[in-house]
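Q: I'm teaching a short session on how sequence maps to structure, and I want students to see two examples side by side rather than one. Could you give me a first protein with its sequence written out and its structure tokens following it? Keep the formatting plain so it prints cleanly on a handout.
A: Of course. Example one:
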Amino acid sequence: MLTRNLALAGIWMAMTELSATQLIIGFALGYFVLWFSPGLAHRSNYFRRVGQGLRFTGFFLRELAIATARVAHDVLTPTPYMKPSVLGIPLDAETDAEIAMLAIVVTLTPGTLALDISSDRKTLYIHAMYVSDPEATRREIKQGFERRILELLR
């Protein structure tokens, strides 16, 4: 279904102009064409996955904005609010893709950095700049990023 959607987006882009904007518009139009095609929407998980991907992207962008504002506030004020800590996050993620995506998202978020994975692949070690409660930080990562990544990839 993704291939069909990309093909429809490519056709749209070829008929209009070669630009990223037209590719996005073509992708959205292709998505709706496939959605309303008889029998296709009910036979594929593609439509559910696209929705999950969009929700994950929205969640990540919100978390990115919050973390950026927190770091910017700390940099611009004379009093530092940092409480840095290295934490071990117990993982429910099992595959290389799940663990790698979690580590990437944590590292892309300002104020956090994925450091290492344990040899048994059950714990992800991170450095976080703002840890007033280690358990709350673990919960935020597990219930926020990890849960959504597992929903997206499984």
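Q: Perfect. Now a second example for contrast.
A: Example two:
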Amino acid sequence: MWIQKTLTLKPRPRGFHLVTQELLGQLPELGRIRVGLAHFFIQHTSASLTLNENADPDVRRDLEAHLRQLAPDAAAHYVHVLEGPDDMPAHIKASLMGASVSVPITDGRLGMGIWQGIYLGEHRNHGGPRQVVATLQGEAREA
């Protein structure tokens, strides 16, 4: 069985945001799969998806703080500046973090560890809604 849908994540401010439940809320089909793979791909070059700890909010703050040091806004050496001081650093951060995550599906649920969640890395000050293509592939559960 193959299922593919384009999901919309609500707009968020710059930073890292747990979006696992928002994604799952748009994928009731996941419950039909006994064993398989879920792949999530963000269709933007200034935002990212990553898998990380879902319990301590300090992880989100530290990820953002570290990336701001790695790729600061308005650095003098940026050439791509027409879309604002946060645009080029957003592209750098998105490339570093990645555009997709893959998670096993086990008995109709994502097979993540107990302390894992899917993060949206919003790297623009005002990124807007974000589109994520979700592809589910697997063997159907018995009815």
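Q: What should students look for in example two?
A: Point them to this: The two ends are 14 Å apart (CA to CA). Also worth mentioning: DSSP finds three helices and eight strands in the chain.
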